[in-house]
Amino acid sequence: MRVPLLVLGLVLALPAGAETVVGEAARLGASSVTLYPYGFLTEEELTTLRLVMSNEQALALFVPERSGFAALAVSPDDGFIRNGAPVASASALGNMPDAGGG
Q1: Torsion angle of the four alpha carbons 19, 25, 28, 29, in this order, in degrees rounded to the nearest 10
Q2: Which of 23, 53, 69, 89 could bridge 96 with an S-S bond, Cβ 3.0-4.6 Å?
Q3: Share of the chain above pLDDT 90, in %
Q4: Confidence at residue 61, expressed as pLDDT on a 0 to 100 scale
Q5: How confident is the model at residue 6 (pLDDT cuts 50, 70, 90)?
Q6: Residue 63 class from Cβ within 10 Å (0-12 exposed, 13-18 middle, 19+ buried)?
Q7: How far apart are CA 6 and CA 8, in angstroms?
Q8: DSSP label at 19?
Q9: pTM, whole model, 2 decimals?
Q10: CB 96 within 8 A of CB 73
């Protein structure tokens, strides 16, 4: 039986030559979670995203369906959290198929 994997990442449209970021990977139950800590993210945003990648209940707030792949899209201009609340432009996408077919 295949265990579904979940990837929490940042989907960005960055120009060619943009910064290269090494992902922080974790296992959360049957899910694999990866955070890409881009330089535009504030400490508050990174702390929140690290909580999401380490806590099943927090992850379920963003990705209620735990099958397939998921991503959190964040704008470098808007960030993820401003004035203590998520920004309107941040979007969680879930239940996506494996683009590699496997």
Answers
A1: 130
A2: 69
A3: 9
A4: 84
A5: very low
A6: buried
A7: 7
A8: P
A9: 0.72
A10: no
Q: Which two tokens stand for residue 85?
A: 């609340």
Give CA–CA dist 73/47, Å, rounded.
17
Tell me if 82 sits within 8 A of 18, measured CB to CB.
Answer: no
What single letter denotes the amino acid at residue 28? Answer: L
CA 19 to chain centre: 18
Tokens of 51: 């909580």
- pLDDT tens for each residue of 44-78: 999 999 998 899 898 888 888 767 788 888 888 88
Is the pLDDT at 12 greater than 50? The verdict is no
The answer to whether the beta carbons of residues 98 and 69 sit under 8 Å apart is yes
Query: Which one is predicted more confidently, 29 or 2?
Result: 29
Residue 39 contacts residue 93 (beta carbons within 8 Å): no
Residue where the block lists tokens 């400490």: 43
Nearest to 40 by CA among 94, 81, 86: 81
